[in-house]
Amino acid sequence: MYRLTVEPIMFFAMFDVVMYSIISKEYLYNFWANAYGLHNHKSDYCNETMSPAIKELEAKVSAAASEWTLYLNIAGFLPSLVTTVIAGSWGDVVGRKPPLIVATTGLLLLVIFYMVTMHFKLPLYILLLGRFFCGLSGDFSAILGSCFAYLSDTSTHKARTFRVAVGEVSISVGGVTGSLISGVWVDAQGFVTPMWILVAGLSFTIFYILFLLPESVHASCDSIAWKLKKLCSPEPFVGFWNLLRAEVVRTKYVLSLLLCFFLEICVYQGISNTLPVFELSPPFCFSDTLVGYSSALFSGGFIIGIVFLKLTQGVGVSCLQAVSAVIFRSLMSRLVNTTEQGSVFSLIASADAIAGLASSFMFNGLYAATVGTFSPSIMLLAVGIDIMILAIFWFSYGKICAYLVSKPDEQNSSLINPDAISVNT
To answer: Which residues contact 28 (CB under 8 A, 6 or more apart)?
Structure first.
């Protein structure tokens, strides 16, 4: 019988994040263009006869928009670093649904902050508050960590890679949809109106988690007070620490894969964050609609990669865009035990959050510093990091496969089909 699962949550979460992210960057660019008096000069700074003064102003606008993207990422990262770490381990104890509800509510609050700021033309620091509260709830990384832990709860080792890949496809489709809609909608109706669809999508997601999604980990107590008590206890941190110290060889393999995953997300997030500003600037001077289409193409390449992954059943296609992240998630999940799935995915989610901040420093900082001289320098940085990923994974993969062959497939006896895992407390 068909079982409702977390793919719709992943779709709407990514749809929300991509759409508000694109709108945010376009809003920041528009805000600083108005602040520097450049808004009415696009026809001047997007032609070959651009004056040095206009060129200098445009560089300032691009740099300011890129810097504020960095500030917003920092505001979300600082609180999420702690909450993301404990979200997965907390889910191992109380179930996957509580951390999902908390993190999704935080995203909804963020969208409301954006809407209010844009509608009333409030100072940009209001956006910083929204990012802070969203980070305090766990942010998008906590949602992904809990969702992938749920998928691991409900899949065998053999099916793990493709099951994770299906989740990644849901994320990718959400990203493509958000990208296609955002630019066209902003061109037609401004910044505020498109945010209402995000409110509707996140509200539905919260309803879906509360009333439709089956729990994959059954705790010994359903009391809300008990679950909050577990969140405030050291137990989630203990589970996280036990994962790292349980077995030296396994920890080494997990950390090597985690490093590859971290670098991959740095590249993906870095390019995603800087590409809209890069495209809005000369010589491209894309419209908001074209920026949305470009983002959709950037995200949509992943779907093609998943098709090849299913057809080939191998890791050779991981060179395709973002498919390598699927491989890294799957291998790390297969390295740990059933009761450690939440902990390992909280570790992955933490790496995701740190990568988001690190990529902002690297890519946004580099772009702001070189926008007036050689703005494509961010592409050279991405290539260099990808070469590092290839080297690390090439060295580690054979040893990891040998370890997995020797590891008993202990999780298969605990699969949720249809009953959930029971956690003794």
So the answer is: 64, 65, 68, 69, 124
Which secondary structure element, helix H or strand E, spans residue 217, and what is its range? strand 217-218
How far is Cα 14 from Cα 9, in angstroms, rounded to an integer?
9
As a whole number of angstroms, the distance between CA 308 and CA 142 comes to 28
Question: What CATH code is assigned to 7-39+54-215+238-406?
Answer: 1.20.1250.20
Cα–Cα distances in angstroms (integers) from residue 167 to residues 150, 163, 259, 310, in the given order: 10, 7, 21, 13
The residue extents of the domains of the chain are 7-39+54-215+238-406
Q: Quote the CA–CA distance of 191 and 180 in Å, as a whole number.
A: 15
What does the pLDDT look like over 345-394, one tens digit per residue? 888 888 888 887 888 889 878 887 887 788 788 889 999 999 999 999 99
Residues 6+ apart with CB under 8 A from 214: 3, 4, 420
Task: Kindly report, residue by residue over 231-289, the tens digit of the pLDDT.
Answer: 777 766 676 777 777 788 899 999 999 999 999 989 988 888 788 777 777 777 777 77
User: pTM for the complete prediction?
Assistant: 0.79
Give residue 356's Cα distance to chain centre: 8
Give me the helices (H) in 213-322, please: 224-231, 235-245, 248-280, 288-312
